[in-house]
Amino acid sequence: MDIENKSRRQLQSEQTKDRLFHAAMELLAERNFDDITIRDIVARAEVSIGTFYNYYSTKMEVFYEAYRIADHYFAETVAPLLSQGTALERIMSFFDYYAHYSSDLTDLRMTKLLYNPDNTLFCRDPHQGMVGVLLQIIQKGLDEGALVSGDSAEEIAEYLMVAVRGLVYNWCTRDGSYDLAASTRRFVHRLLAYYLPASAKPV
62, 115, 145, 149 — which has fewest CB within 10 A? Predict the structure, then answer.
């Protein structure tokens, strides 16, 4: 019964967080971040100020819910779609979804907001959620010999994520003036050439 009650409370908590997050996203589509108040968010979400402070201490923390949602999306939706193909193809597909998520599912304004130097969530546990999906693909590639490196799967995943986040940041600074998905695909393909066996490297 305790487990059932805990699961129910956890579900209610996630639903409330989702309401607050989607309310904040709607407001961000209408006005600048600095013009949004906590009262605006709770009014749109139809919850009390007290409920808000049960979960968050600042409005920025609401927008960081994007990471919980992204991790769930990659673990539950994307990962099952990455079981086929070569290691190279699976990694390329992962970053296709990453670019799509950054440019289309969250959009430019939200991505700009998240890409700030105070955001510690870029350094969260790499074995969980989004990066955990990439880590599993890379580890399988190393185990199969489809990828070769003196680096561990964790090191390769970190290298790729840091590099691609840099590309996304550049896309933000240019106000989304180029196709992020196409640029990410070219960028990752070049990065991965380093980890391919000699027989698989482009001539």
Answer: 145
